[in-house]
């Protein structure tokens, strides 16, 4: 397997708290991986290290085979803007903008022209089955619709990796499953890798593979004896 994104032996401490104590993971293009584990085990920290938001104390994170720790802060932020997409539990959309404008935003930051950005954003809203809320503001749509808009925004730039931290955590199970179905279908079609943190087995069931984080260590579910 050639990994699009990988972490090898990542350590991270916050003061006296060890969040990661040698976490490793490798995810291929088009692969959907669920990261599971108890609260405080280091799942979000691992996601942030992979995304270049948090710098590991030790260990390597590679995107497309290149060590992202060797990049400047500016290069890492360009990487996040152009190659990575993010979906969080809630509150990630800009409240003053319409749903369509929220999805055009990452394209506008890349200097895509207004008309073309709106065309591509509308196409993604349609794919995520939220074309009908294009003109509404995030405060005027349901939680599930808002998350589907967030997925559209994460994928509209042609992201190679989507990082999703509890993307369905604030949704009921029916809406959660709809978000997962649309996210995983879109990712498999575009070849984006998805790294998904979740507490719910029902959500993890949409992944190709589960990785367990426990006390800052990762383990593939397949390696753990039943
Ligand atoms: N910015 C920070 N400053 C201090 N400690 C932190 C920080 N971020 C995380 N930690 C600590 O690191 C450990 C791992 O946190 P992390 O957020 O990665 O856990 P998690 O597995 O995502 O938990 P949850 O399921 O509750 O979201 C915890 O003990 C947490 O308190
Ligand atoms: Mg977390």
Automatic annotation (TrEMBL):
PROSITE patterns: ABC_TRANSPORTER_2. CDD domains: ABC_MJ0796_LolCDE_FtsE. One of its GO terms (molecular function) is ATP binding. Pfam families: ABC_tran. Residues 5-224 form the ABC transporter domain. The keyword ATP-binding applies. Keywords: ATP-binding, Nucleotide-binding, Transport. The keyword Transport applies. This is ABC transporter ATP-binding protein.
């Amino acid at each position: 397997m050639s990994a699009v994104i990988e972490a090898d032996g990542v350590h991270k401490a916050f003061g006296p708290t060890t969040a990661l104590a040698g976490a490793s993971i490798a995810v291929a293009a088009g692969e959907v991986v669920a990261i599971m584990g108890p609260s405080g085990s280091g799942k979000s920290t691992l996601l942030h290290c992979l995304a270049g938001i948090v710098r590991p104390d030790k260990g390597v994170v590679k995107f497309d085979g290149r060590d992202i720790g060797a990049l400047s802060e500016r290069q890492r932020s360009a990487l996040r803007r152009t190659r990575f997409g993010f979906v969080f539990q809630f509150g990630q959309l800009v409240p003053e903008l319409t749903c369509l404008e929220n999805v055009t935003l990452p394209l506008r930051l890349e200097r895509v022209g207004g008309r073309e950005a709106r065309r591509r954003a509308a196409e993604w809203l349609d794919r995520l089955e939220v074309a009908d809320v294009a003109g509404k503001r995030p405060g005027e749509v349901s939680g599930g619709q808002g998350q589907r808009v967030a997925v559209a925004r994460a994928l509209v730039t042609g992201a190679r990796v989507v990082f999703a931290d509890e993307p369905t955590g604030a949704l009921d199970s029916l809406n959660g499953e709809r978000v997962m179905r649309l996210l995983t279908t879109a990712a498999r079609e575009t070849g984006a890798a998805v790294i998904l943190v979740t507490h719910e087995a029902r959500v993890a069931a949409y992944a190709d593979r589960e990785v367990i984080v426990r006390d800052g260590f990762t383990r593939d579910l397949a390696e753990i004896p039943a």
